Each structure stands twice: as C-alpha cells, then as structure tokens.
Amino acid sequence: MGKKDNRVDVYIAKAAPFAQPILNHLSELVHKACLDVEETIKWSFPNFNYKGTFC
Length: 55
Prior knowledge:
55 residues, alpha+beta, globular
C-alpha cells in the first residue's frame, strides 16, 4: 500500500456526516487502484500523488 497521511483522516473526520462515507470510499478505491499512490494534503484538500498529482 502507498503512503498514507493521517491529516487526510482528520480532514474526513471533520467533513459533513453525509460526505464521510463517500470520502472514505474514494480513498480506499484510490489506494486499491494504485498501490504506490501517496496521500497528502495540498491546498487544504486531500490529494493523491503518483508521479505527480493523481487526483
């Protein structure tokens, strides 16, 4: 699995209740689809990097 960033978990925990399951699902999908992806926070939002910005 790629590099996880705890700040993304904090961001998701602070998100609106309806958005939390969606954000968790998207994060899981990205990590399953690209095993070397790196999770980070950029511009105050979660970002995924793989040889540059992935999503």
